[in-house]
């Protein structure tokens, strides 16, 4: 295999993408599909799932709350039926969580953020690892963290705390699973263009008493390249990490953020 060919995932990989019906997850699912992988996606949003499956008939789907152990078990029942095994887990599920000062934060919002952003990573990894250990196709896990997983993030403490924890989970699993040939890495996206980022900007603007336009400019001033990234940028890194070119890349927290300097 030459270098250029090694930059693409091997066709036929069996891939599970959590929260893959829209945004970054959908971009990753489509990218793997285009590379010839067999892709299964789960998501809590049935409407978005049906739209993805209509647009990409080769992608199979499950409706699931990624923080629910029962739902995760049902997803793996579907994975065994549709894929017959697993080579790649993309642990992508996550929510923005609340935007507020710690003293006024609702405990239920904290707990929900931890459940979706962190507990889901554990639940899916726990079920995926036996299948990945049986894979003969350079198995790997890609955990979606955030630039908030390497920097402090005022008014977004539940989100930042969970994203730091995802990096710790990834580092530990890379050591634990390396002897069985399973690679584990994390991607740390920065500000990703789209509806979710617009909502984050609006909420942070409201919490700090500035306009959304001013808050957007503040975000851009903190980025060396003075631009946000796209879901396609994150998908491209995911595919690279699952390609033969990355066969010796494990235990890494890789930022795709145009170099966010501070938050």
UniProtKB/TrEMBL annotation:
UniProt xrefs under InterPro entries: NAD(P)-bd_dom_sf (IPR036291), Sc_DH/Rdtase_CS (IPR020904), SDR_fam (IPR002347)
Gene Ontology MF terms: oxidoreductase activity, acting on the CH-OH group of donors, NAD or NADP as acceptor
SUPFAM superfamilies: NAD(P)-binding Rossmann-fold domains
Pfam families attached to this UniProt entry: adh_short_C2
Gene3D superfamilies assigned to the protein according to its UniProt record, in alphabetical order: NAD(P)-binding Rossmann-like Domain
Keyword Signal part of the UniProt annotation: no
KW Oxidoreductase (keyword) present: yes
Assigned keywords, A-Z: Oxidoreductase
Highest taxon, organism lineage: Bacteria
CDD domains: SDR_c
PANTHER family tied to this protein: 3-OXOACYL-[ACYL-CARRIER-PROTEIN] REDUCTASE (PTHR42760:SF133), SHORT-CHAIN DEHYDROGENASES/REDUCTASES FAMILY MEMBER (PTHR42760)
NCBIfam families: PRK12826.1-2 (NF009466)
Family listed: Belongs to the short-chain dehydrogenases/reductases (SDR) family.
Protein name: SDR family oxidoreductase
